[in-house]
Design goal:
alpha/beta, 5 helices, 178 residues, 7 strands, two-stranded antiparallel ribbon, five-stranded mixed beta sheet, single chain
Length: 178
Protein backbone atom coordinates (compact mmCIF):
# COMPACT_ATOMS: atom_id res chain seq x y z
CA UNK A 1 0.00 0.00 0.00
CA UNK A 2 1.23 3.50 -0.73
CA UNK A 3 1.77 6.07 2.01
CA UNK A 4 -1.41 7.79 3.14
CA UNK A 5 -0.93 10.92 5.29
CA UNK A 6 -2.38 10.75 8.80
CA UNK A 7 -5.66 12.38 9.74
CA UNK A 8 -5.31 14.48 12.89
CA UNK A 9 -8.23 14.12 15.28
CA UNK A 10 -8.92 16.30 18.31
CA UNK A 11 -11.51 17.29 20.86
CA UNK A 12 -11.56 18.35 24.49
CA UNK A 13 -11.96 15.75 27.24
CA UNK A 14 -15.66 14.95 27.58
CA UNK A 15 -16.55 16.09 24.06
CA UNK A 16 -17.44 12.46 23.24
CA UNK A 17 -14.72 12.61 20.62
CA UNK A 18 -13.69 9.00 21.29
CA UNK A 19 -17.10 7.73 20.18
CA UNK A 20 -16.92 9.94 17.10
CA UNK A 21 -13.41 8.60 16.36
CA UNK A 22 -14.69 5.04 16.52
CA UNK A 23 -17.53 5.87 14.11
CA UNK A 24 -15.05 7.44 11.68
CA UNK A 25 -12.63 4.51 11.93
CA UNK A 26 -15.41 1.99 11.31
CA UNK A 27 -16.91 3.86 8.35
CA UNK A 28 -13.69 4.97 6.71
CA UNK A 29 -11.67 1.76 6.48
CA UNK A 30 -9.05 3.21 8.85
CA UNK A 31 -5.98 1.34 10.05
CA UNK A 32 -6.82 0.37 13.65
CA UNK A 33 -3.65 -1.59 14.35
CA UNK A 34 -3.01 0.85 17.23
CA UNK A 35 -5.73 -0.90 19.27
CA UNK A 36 -4.56 -3.19 22.07
CA UNK A 37 -6.08 -4.34 25.36
CA UNK A 38 -3.78 -1.90 27.20
CA UNK A 39 -5.12 0.99 25.10
CA UNK A 40 -8.75 0.55 26.00
CA UNK A 41 -11.12 2.01 28.55
CA UNK A 42 -14.78 1.05 28.78
CA UNK A 43 -17.40 2.73 30.90
CA UNK A 44 -21.10 1.99 31.39
CA UNK A 45 -22.92 1.23 28.15
CA UNK A 46 -20.49 3.26 26.03
CA UNK A 47 -17.45 2.13 24.13
CA UNK A 48 -15.05 4.49 25.87
CA UNK A 49 -11.51 4.81 24.54
CA UNK A 50 -9.89 2.59 21.91
CA UNK A 51 -6.44 2.85 20.35
CA UNK A 52 -3.47 5.11 20.88
CA UNK A 53 -3.87 8.57 22.37
CA UNK A 54 -1.10 11.14 22.15
CA UNK A 55 -0.52 13.54 25.03
CA UNK A 56 1.82 14.94 27.65
CA UNK A 57 2.76 12.16 30.08
CA UNK A 58 1.05 9.49 27.98
CA UNK A 59 2.51 6.48 26.18
CA UNK A 60 2.96 8.61 23.04
CA UNK A 61 3.93 12.29 23.37
CA UNK A 62 2.11 14.93 21.29
CA UNK A 63 5.12 15.39 19.00
CA UNK A 64 4.55 16.33 15.39
CA UNK A 65 6.91 13.99 13.59
CA UNK A 66 5.82 11.07 11.45
CA UNK A 67 7.93 8.50 13.33
CA UNK A 68 6.19 9.33 16.61
CA UNK A 69 2.76 9.54 14.98
CA UNK A 70 3.10 6.09 13.39
CA UNK A 71 4.84 4.34 16.31
CA UNK A 72 1.61 2.87 17.79
CA UNK A 73 0.61 1.27 14.48
CA UNK A 74 1.73 -1.93 12.72
CA UNK A 75 4.55 -1.44 10.20
CA UNK A 76 2.30 -2.32 7.23
CA UNK A 77 -0.16 0.51 6.65
CA UNK A 78 -3.62 -0.90 5.86
CA UNK A 79 -5.47 2.38 5.43
CA UNK A 80 -5.56 5.96 6.67
CA UNK A 81 -4.50 6.47 10.30
CA UNK A 82 -6.45 8.58 12.75
CA UNK A 83 -3.96 10.11 15.21
CA UNK A 84 -5.81 11.27 18.31
CA UNK A 85 -4.85 13.90 20.90
CA UNK A 86 -6.66 16.45 23.01
CA UNK A 87 -3.53 18.56 22.65
CA UNK A 88 -3.67 18.79 18.85
CA UNK A 89 -6.38 21.40 19.45
CA UNK A 90 -3.75 23.91 20.56
CA UNK A 91 -1.30 22.90 17.80
CA UNK A 92 -3.59 23.21 14.78
CA UNK A 93 -1.62 25.93 12.98
CA UNK A 94 1.63 24.02 13.52
CA UNK A 95 -0.02 20.85 12.14
CA UNK A 96 -1.03 22.75 8.99
CA UNK A 97 2.51 24.12 8.62
CA UNK A 98 4.24 20.76 9.14
CA UNK A 99 1.70 18.52 7.40
CA UNK A 100 0.09 20.68 4.71
CA UNK A 101 -1.66 17.76 2.98
CA UNK A 102 -3.26 16.33 6.13
CA UNK A 103 -6.90 16.52 7.09
CA UNK A 104 -7.82 17.66 10.62
CA UNK A 105 -11.08 16.59 12.27
CA UNK A 106 -12.22 18.54 15.35
CA UNK A 107 -15.03 17.66 17.76
CA UNK A 108 -16.65 20.51 19.66
CA UNK A 109 -19.05 20.34 22.59
CA UNK A 110 -19.77 23.18 25.06
CA UNK A 111 -17.27 23.41 27.92
CA UNK A 112 -19.60 22.61 30.83
CA UNK A 113 -21.08 19.59 29.00
CA UNK A 114 -17.54 18.32 28.28
CA UNK A 115 -16.61 18.52 31.95
CA UNK A 116 -19.87 16.91 33.12
CA UNK A 117 -19.53 14.00 30.68
CA UNK A 118 -15.84 13.50 31.49
CA UNK A 119 -16.77 13.16 35.17
CA UNK A 120 -19.64 10.75 34.37
CA UNK A 121 -17.28 8.67 32.23
CA UNK A 122 -14.96 8.18 35.19
CA UNK A 123 -13.12 11.48 35.62
CA UNK A 124 -9.90 10.99 37.53
CA UNK A 125 -10.59 7.23 37.71
CA UNK A 126 -10.29 6.78 33.92
CA UNK A 127 -7.53 4.24 33.41
CA UNK A 128 -6.75 5.02 29.77
CA UNK A 129 -5.56 7.46 28.63
CA UNK A 130 -3.68 9.16 31.47
CA UNK A 131 -5.15 12.50 32.56
CA UNK A 132 -2.48 13.49 35.15
CA UNK A 133 -1.41 16.36 32.86
CA UNK A 134 -4.68 18.09 33.74
CA UNK A 135 -3.74 18.12 37.48
CA UNK A 136 -7.13 18.84 39.12
CA UNK A 137 -10.74 19.83 38.43
CA UNK A 138 -9.98 23.53 37.99
CA UNK A 139 -7.14 22.87 35.53
CA UNK A 140 -9.31 20.35 33.66
CA UNK A 141 -12.05 22.98 33.24
CA UNK A 142 -9.46 25.53 32.11
CA UNK A 143 -7.90 23.12 29.56
CA UNK A 144 -11.32 22.13 28.18
CA UNK A 145 -12.14 25.81 27.62
CA UNK A 146 -8.70 26.50 26.12
CA UNK A 147 -8.90 23.53 23.75
CA UNK A 148 -12.44 24.38 22.63
CA UNK A 149 -11.50 28.01 22.10
CA UNK A 150 -8.43 27.04 20.05
CA UNK A 151 -10.54 24.84 17.76
CA UNK A 152 -13.19 27.53 17.29
CA UNK A 153 -10.53 30.16 16.49
CA UNK A 154 -8.83 27.85 13.98
CA UNK A 155 -12.16 26.96 12.36
CA UNK A 156 -13.07 30.64 12.02
CA UNK A 157 -9.68 31.49 10.50
CA UNK A 158 -9.94 28.67 7.95
CA UNK A 159 -13.70 28.86 7.25
CA UNK A 160 -14.32 25.36 8.59
CA UNK A 161 -17.99 24.44 8.62
CA UNK A 162 -19.30 22.74 11.76
CA UNK A 163 -21.79 19.91 11.27
CA UNK A 164 -24.07 18.64 13.99
CA UNK A 165 -23.54 15.01 14.96
CA UNK A 166 -26.25 12.72 13.62
CA UNK A 167 -27.28 11.45 17.10
CA UNK A 168 -26.05 14.05 19.59
CA UNK A 169 -27.40 17.57 19.11
CA UNK A 170 -24.74 19.08 21.40
CA UNK A 171 -21.75 17.74 19.42
CA UNK A 172 -20.36 19.47 16.34
CA UNK A 173 -17.71 18.14 13.97
CA UNK A 174 -15.50 20.37 11.86
CA UNK A 175 -13.15 19.07 9.18
CA UNK A 176 -10.24 21.07 7.80
CA UNK A 177 -9.22 19.86 4.35
CA UNK A 178 -6.25 21.49 2.62
Amino acid sequence: MTYIPPTFFTGAPGSKWSGVAQEIEEQGNYDTSDRTAAREYTHSAYSGHLGAYFGTGMEFPPELDIATLYRPFAAEQTGPRLVKSHEWSTQLNEIVDRFPSCKIIMVYRPDYLCYEWWMQAGGWSITYPDYKYYVDDNEMKFKIAEQNSSMLDFAQKHSVQWLQHHRHSDIFIGTYKP
